[in-house]
Amino acid sequence: MGVADATLAELTSDQLRNLCEIAGIDERDPIRLLGDILGPAGPRPLAEPPLWPSDVADDATPVEFSMQFESDGNRHLRVLAEKLADEPGPGANLRATRELLTSLDARYGLNLDRLRAVEDLFLADDPQGKFAWWYSFIFGPDSMPKFKIYINPAMHGAEHASALVERALGRLGLDGAWQTIRDHALTRDGFDHPGFFAVDLDRGPQARVKLYVTHDAAGPDDAVRAARAVPGIDADRVAEFCAMLSPETEVFRGRPLVSSYSFVDGDQETPSNYSLYLPIRDYVPHDAVARERTVRLLKDHGVDPDLLDRALTALTDRPLEDNTGLIAHLSLRMSPGKTGTTVYLSSEAYGGTPQRAA
Ligand code: TRP
């Protein structure tokens, strides 16, 4: 069977199976969960248009892969995914997302306490914006899959996003958290926005609540200021990260820099983790350059860059020079005494990032 006849499920399962092998992860849960989340989109031949214009990836593929590396040697493989209904639409997709949650809970015994505490704030029959809820599946070499729900705080309209996030944080006992984030990350009126609100669905003490902030037209110093919300980390590393990945960029005017803060058990107004996400695909001529810079980043973090090349080969055999976007984002994660980096990889099932006009 040629690639042209393959379905979305076939292509993405092959990609995920390859990535599992590289990361030393048992493929069974990942492959089954991928099938669950793709649902009606899975059996569609790739020659047919996407079932729904998902914003998970630039080409409407409803999944995105990522490989996460920690300074303590830990590795995880993750899948960000949007659940689509049989007849997709904003409201129907959210209903399908919540139905899947019920069956995942039955199978894996999730901790839904955090989500239950806030979900009434984030329900709608006809949500606005590019999505309402997304999933992340997180796989490690020797652990059960973990789950996260990403919520679009603008699903009732961008003008309500801040107030909703503030209420949600308060309900989760994170009093003062909003103020901390506002003071450090939401300082540029009209340019900084709450991007995603995420809750972990597992029981570990590191399970957390995460708030993402989008920084339109921001520079590295804006990210450094955002990082200073977390005590005990070296915020200047954020500027080094930007300089390593996009040395010529003073203001990120393409796809925006994004900050995130994690609150774990015991945190109240002070997050214990800061991450910066850099959408490298908008700041390189093509993926060969993105790869070179990612190699440098991985070496800097003590990660064998061969893993990157194997991961890229696991996804595609297209020449890296042909387009950008196979490496979609890179992130730097910092908490006191610990750093990490994550490489976000596109499936390119529907052709990848549209080429920029010359
Ligand atoms: N595709 C969207 C974007 O690029 C959402 C997204 C997917 C994203 N993965 C991400 C955003 C990682 C930030 C970081 O904005």
Give me a quick take on this structure.
Pfam families: Trp_DMAT. The protein is α+β, with helices and mostly antiparallel strands.
Question: Topology of this structure?
Answer:
Blueprint: H1 8-23, H2 28-38, E1 63-70, E2 75-81, H3 90-108, H4 113-118, E3 133-139, E4 146-151, H5 161-171, H6 177-185, E5 192-200, E6 208-215, H7 220-227, H8 236-245, E7 257-264, E8 273-278, H9 287-300, H10 306-315, E9 327-335, E10 338-346
Antiparallel strand pairs: 1-2, 1-10, 2-3, 3-4, 4-5, 5-6, 6-7, 7-8, 8-9, 9-10
Bound molecules: tryptophan.
Our count of helices gives 10
Instruction: Give the strand order of the largest sheet, numbering strands 1, 2, ... along the chain.
Output: 1-2-3-4-5-6-7-8-9-10
Bound molecules: tryptophan
Report the helical percentage.
Answer: 25-40%
Form type:
globular
Stretches with pLDDT under 50, minimum 5 residues: none
| Order of H and E elements | HHEEHHEEHHEEHHEEHHEE
Question: How would you describe this protein?
Answer:
The protein has helices at 8-23, 28-38, 90-108, 113-118, 161-171, 177-185, 220-227, 236-245, 287-300, 306-315, and strands at 63-70, 75-81, 133-139, 146-151, 192-200, 208-215, 257-264, 273-278, 327-335, 338-346. With 358 residues, the protein is an alpha+beta fold. The protein has one domain (3-346). β1 and β2 (75-81) form a beta hairpin. The protein is globular and about 55 Å long. 46% of the residues are buried. The mean pLDDT is 95. Bound molecules: tryptophan. The site of tryptophan has 11 residues, from loops.
